[in-house]
Structures are given as C-alpha cells and as structure tokens.
Task: structure prediction
Amino acid sequence: MNTKYFGKFDSLKNQKVQIMDETGKIINEKLMPKINKETVIKAYKIMSLSRAQDHFQDKVQKQGRLLSYLTSTGQEACEVAYGLQIKKGKDWFSGAYRNNAAWLASGVPMRNIMLYWIGNEFGSHMPEGIQTLPINIPIATQYSHATGIAFAEKYAGRDGVCLTTTGDGGSSEGEFYEAMNFAQLHEVPAVFMVENNKYAISTPRSKATKAINFAVKGISTGTRNIIVDGNDFFASWAVVEEAMELARKGHGPSLIEFDTYRLGAHSSSDDPKVYRDEKYHQEQIKKDPLIRMKNYLVDKGWWDAKKQKALDEENNKIIRAEFKWVEENANTKLEDIFKYTYAEMTDALNEQMQEEKDFQKYLSEKGGN
Result:
C-alpha cells in the first residue's frame, strides 16, 4: 500500500483501516473523523432508507413492476460515507449500477432511481446541482468518464472532485488501469473506489485475481492506494475525506478499496445460493453495516426501539408514495429512446425513430399492441 500522502494512516502500512469493530464499538479513536451527531444520524437514516428501498424494489420486480434491479444491500456504509461528502454543484459522481445508497446520499431523488429501473430513461435527468452521471451498465467505463471530468475540472481551474466506483470485478477491465494511468499522469482530482463485495456476479474474488487485495492495483499506475473496512462508516468517511482533500489541493488521484460484502443477489435474475457458501454468508451477515451503526447510536444514547419503529414506518410511507408516483407517471415517450443519445440526433437515429413510429402505426391499424 502506497501511503505517501495518506498521513493519518501511515502507521497502518499494509493493514486495513478500521475505526469501528463488528459490534459497533470504536476501537481507534485517534482516526475518528470529526462528524457531528446530526450527520451520523442522517447517515444511518439514509442507510436504512436504502435498505428498505432495496427490499421493496426487489419484491415489486418479482411482480413484474420493475424491469430489473441491482441492490446495494450490505454496502450502505461506504456508499453513504462517500455520497454525503459529494458537494452539491461542485463535485461529481460517476457510478455504476449498484449504488442505490450512494445515489440517495448524494441527493438523487428516489423517484429518479425508480424511474430508471422501470424503464424510463428520464430518471437519469438530475435536479439542478446534482452532478451525478446516469447509471452505467458497461463495466468500469465509469472510471474513464470520471478521469475526463476530473481533467476538465483541473483544466478549467475549478476545485471540484470526481468520485467513481466499481465492483471488484471491474478491476479486471482494461479501462480500470487506463483511466487511473491517465489520471495519475495528469494529477487530476479523481477518487477511484472499488467496492469489493467478494463476487463479480458468480465469480468469487479468489478466482478473479491473485493480487493480495484490490488496493495494490493502484501501484501499477503510481496511484496512492489504501484498503478500508467498507462496513465501517467512520473508517470509510475518514479515508474518503482525506482523498478528496488531497485531490482538491492538487495532489492527484487515489484508489480506495472498500472491503465489504454483497448481502443480496447480484441482480434480480440471480440466485446466489447456486454459487455462494451458506456458512460464509451467515458469517458475513454478522458484519452487517446497519447493525453496527445502530449499535453505535444506541450505545451513544442517540437511538432506541421507539425511534427505529418510527423510522421504519416513515421509510415505508416514503418508498410506497414514490413508487406510486412513478407507476402513475412513468409512460416513456418513443422519442425519448432516441433523442438523448447525442446532443443532436443523427440521421441514423432519425431513421430508426421513424421506422419504429411506422411499425407502431402498423400495429395500431392491425389491432396489435
């Protein structure tokens, strides 16, 4: 691990950064970031909301009311930790497809997320100041997008930082290295993150790489790198905070590996029981980031069963109300499928759109659908 600029964590060398243990107790007070009570509680509420949304959308997808869905269940701590630090109107987020908690934390409206998964691309149209790129399905191409955005920020003389994330499988893609190499070469303000949830679809980490961890992959491009307990909200916050500060000051990019775990399936069409060892899975459940955060809040006297019940009820109302709005307003216009590929539609896209219009007219006249 290259800790050249990670001053706070130099003493850890090749160890994983951890501040909170698996029970929610603080074990490294000197590394504890300065976060006020309100922010910590807000973080827990977003983590809980994302988990509840994941469960709800997984159910309605099985009812045929969503096209597909990929949850961030189990990865909420690191995602909320970096999502809350993205400054509105200044910083950027170039995510993948398993970033529900990060989207909520960075200000993306829940209905936008639901719109996308129901098949309406307008869900990618962000409110003013929310500089979050559309959901990225190709693996690791978001790293290249982030590098380009960060390069533009530096070129324009602004102090915005672009954060980007991928799963452990994404580190096997060429763009993973190409993007970091360019970013390091030009010292752009980017923060690269790998959410190591132990599986790339059904491929376990052990069959994906012989590297001792994913953080060390930054060494090949000269990028400082660090590994952190991704289920530890405070450790995740502290490492991201320093990486963003360094990037903003002109010290270039960082690579952060979040050691976490995907509690759910890869996607709504996946059955993890086919490839995942059940004993190992049960062990990982004990490391659930929501349990750790809740224990911490209870120990501090900031949380109790009454507040939890009220939060669960409020989350349920919010999620159902948002999905009701989406189902009532999600009609996708045919033009929207074609018109947002480029700033202006090409001749080929116009031809394709007209062809589809003619086909729909044909079906209508023949009484089809």
Q: What stands out?
A: The chain has a mean pLDDT of 93. The radius of gyration is 21 Å.
